[in-house]
Design brief:
By secondary structure, the chain is of the alpha/beta class. Helix content is 49%, strand content 12%. Helix 1 packs parallel to helix 6 and helix 8 packs parallel to helix 13.
Length: 303
């Protein structure tokens, strides 16, 4: 790869768009592509070059960042018909910022390596706020030398960059991160409904959890649940189900028993089947409420 980094970005949705905005502050020659051109309209107005196809983007760039929904889309963009591998020059680097499966990350890394192209799995943590502010945490698997080549680009969207080992390592770290958070939320949902059915003042309970140290990150969602803010689609229930399913897949491939994760995943599956898949993931509390015939409220409630 030449010393000049020609950067492209595929996927200008919820997370991708704010990352592109950060990059546009410096990467004036940035090329972008998305299956839905409308999502990129404001980015084009800011100066991003619109690539009408993946092949067009690949001919313009030697570094391509991805922010896509999941393994199927990532595989299609990288190695599918008309994908990036059909046109990227030898020595190019693909950085996948999506939440991917470990197996897919390793397969794509091997496919890229056969074309003398490097694939880094680099999922992110920090949400939309981190994407907007350039404070994401990057968990990276793949070649360390390639990482150093693209580090100046990645530093524009992140506050911390961790190189964790060979291909797939970043994906493992992200899946563990999401597994702990999402499955922990299921316990929080159950606890809230239990307390509500017992007639406790839930506002007082949240204060107790916070002061005792038991609430942690989970109790931060309490107000959103009390206010029934389920239409906030920053992290849909469908995405939560997908991420926990990927963690279970990794557990099976590495022969790690994960019964608690499996039980939490089942709640997300049932909540999605109940019509909540497009709601925010914390809408899964509604399923627990239905089974318990109890509604979580911030005032004293009882049955």
């Amino acid at each position: 790869m030449s010393s000049e980094l020609r950067v492209g970005f595929v996927g200008t949705g919820t997370m991708g768009a704010p990352m592109v905005e950060r990059l546009l502050d410096r990467e004036r020659a940035l090329s972008i592509h998305d299956v839905n051109p409308a999502t990129a309209a404001s980015l084009r107005e800011r100066g991003a070059h619109w690539a009408p196809s993946l092949e067009d983007l690949a001919t313009r760039c030697n570094v391509v960042l991805l922010s896509l929904p999941g393994p199927a889309q990532i595989k299609s963009v990288v190695s599918g018909p008309g994908g990036l591998l059909s046109k990227l020059e030898a020595g190019s680097i693909i950085v996948d910022l999506s939440t991917n499966s470990v197996q897919t990350a390793r397969e794509l890394a091997a496919a890229c390596h056969s074309r003398d192209i490097c694939f880094l799995d680099s999922p992110v943590s920090g949400g939309m706020k981190g994407a907007r502010e350039g404070t994401l945490v990057l968990m990276i698997g793949g070649d360390a030398t390639a990482l150093e080549q693209v580090r100046p680009v990645l530093e524009q969207i992140s506050r911390s960059i961790f190189h964790l080992g060979p291909a797939g390592s970043g994906s493992v770290a992200k899946l563990v991160n999401n597994q702990l958070y999402l499955c922990g939320q299921v316990l929080f949902f159950e606890g809230l409904v239990l307390a509500a059915k017992a007639g406790l003042d839930l506002s007082a309970l949240i204060e107790i959890l916070n002061q005792s140290g038991s609430g942690g990150v989970h109790s931060l969602l309490a107000d959103r649940i009390f206010e029934r803010r389920f239409d906030d689609r920053t992290f849909t229930l469908a995405l939560a189900e997908k991420d926990v399913a990927l963690a279970l897949e990794a557990g099976r491939s590495l022969e790690v028993p994960m019964p608690a994760t499996a039980a939490s995943h089942q709640l997300f599956v049932e909540a999605a089947a109940a019509g909540l898949h497009d709601k925010n993931f914390w809408a899964a509390v509604e399923l627990v409420e239905r089974h318990a015939n109890t509604r979580v409220e911030s005032e004293v409630s009882g049955q």
